[in-house]
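Many introductory courses stop at the sequence. We go one step further.
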Amino acid sequence: MKKIAIIMGGYSSEYKISLTSGNVVYQNLDKTKFKGYRIHIFKEKWVYVDDNDTEFQIDKNDFSVTVSNEKITFDCVFNAIHGTPGEDGLMQGYFELLGIPQNSCDYYQAALTFNKRDLLSVLKPYGIKSATSYYLNLGDEIKQDEILAKVGLPCFVKPNKSGSSFGISKVKTKDELLFAIANAYKEDNEIIIESFLDGTEVSVGVINYKGETIVLPITEIVSENDFFDYEAKYLGKSQEITPARISEDIAEKIRVVAKKAYTILKMSGFSRSEFIIVEGEPFMLEMNTIPGLTTESLIPQQAHAAGIALEDLFSNSIELALKK
């Protein structure tokens, strides 16, 4: 039986969501094939947490743990850390150095996709559309008139490297811009300011399933709030409709673009990309490589619509990692 370390937590504002995702993975592992170990990764501690919530310190030298005088090493790592250090390439690089298989994409792809600016810049020459954008780094002079001349109003102010909509604001007036920028800087020292795309928001997962790259059913996002923010994602303030209520022609365009991006980037593991459909054309917002795996999350919903049970989804991901 293979020993699987399920890493969860992390160093970002997303750590609570990650703990929920990791526990969903733990609860849905195929117990006939795998023995799961919940590993909490925090800045102050890396620990294995058993079913009694007893903690055992991880030896970072070889990513092992000693329990009752027995040293446990792992056959594979299931990465459920949203944000840093699980989604930005740090953990991927660490496990590659140790020679331990892990189920997410490689370190370069993780770092690239975690950086919204770089991701969209790399994909643009391949014809993948995105919003007009303006970049700021912490310490830069904030030229409000120049920003708004480029992106217009309303616009979105986002941390460049963050997830779960932390630090994102929809700016409707010039007076709101400075507050939105300050809010985004709480999450990251780089900011991306994007023009408002007026259209239908959709999300689509792309995975390698049984050796084949497949696009999962598309989800339409209908938020009760101004946009698909934290409340909409996790507190029930949205409708998530799978399959999306869009024409087959538009659905096919999205499937083609989502799969193209996955292929261009030489992705592996899970990915979930967000698009806004404007006049029949998909505009990419971002790609997540450690998407949420909670019961409310989109990838589990899309897998269910595709007839893939969570146990099969997770088993497939681990088995592909073991073959890499």
